[in-house]
Design brief:
The chain is mainly beta. The protein is 10% helix and 43% strand. The strands form three sheets. Strands 7, 8, 9, 10, 11 and 12 form a six-stranded antiparallel β-sheet that branches. The protein has a four-stranded antiparallel β-sheet with strand order 1-2-5-6. Strands 3-4 form a two-stranded antiparallel ribbon. A hairpin with a 2-residue loop joins strand 8 (86-88) and strand 9. It is globular, with a radius of gyration of 19 Å.
Amino acid sequence: MLAMQNLNAARWKPLPNGHYSGTVYEVGIYTKFDTDEVVETWRNPATGDERKIWQFFGGPLSVEIGLDGIVTGPEATLKPKEMRMDILGDTLITPNHSAFSFPNPFTADKWPKEAGEPTFLWDSHYFHAANLADVMNPDLTRVISLTQFQNMVSFHPWLGMGKTPGRTYGKGLGSKLRSLDDVPVAARAILEKHAPEIFEIDKWNKPRIDFMEYMQQRKPG
């Protein structure tokens, strides 16, 4: 259906209990499927409506990571549950899953085209893969890892699916970067133009909450 250039930036600090606390910021800009061409509108194949695309901004979000797992703040749509780690050759794989739901704030009487089912569903699976020797090296403060992410999520209000049943399926492929200089050239150009905030998180102080902003900036239908 669509692709997205997504960038997640976070600050981490050690806690007295041995855990790490993170503040996370994330943006996502839609493009034509499998291309770097930014799109502003999308035609809904089920209704025929031309819909203005809603680009994604979220954060700051709070995260705490420790030996007992991952805990995210109340504003996060990812509630990770750790799974068994595996070693394949020289690669360490750390999988997680998340089954999350919440009452849908969009009701059919006020938002007939945006509203879906009363409960909004957000199910995710993902894993990180890193070199085992790097992970075990006490002299390294961070390790480059590859990430594969997938989710099934109730139709976002901007799609205008109304009461049509179903969800979107999303797949993400990515990597932890050494610095923002490692962002691919095409992706960086897109993000600098449409989501420059992610490159200046020191100035990102106002919370960006997806559904709340949609309700404030868009009108029903």
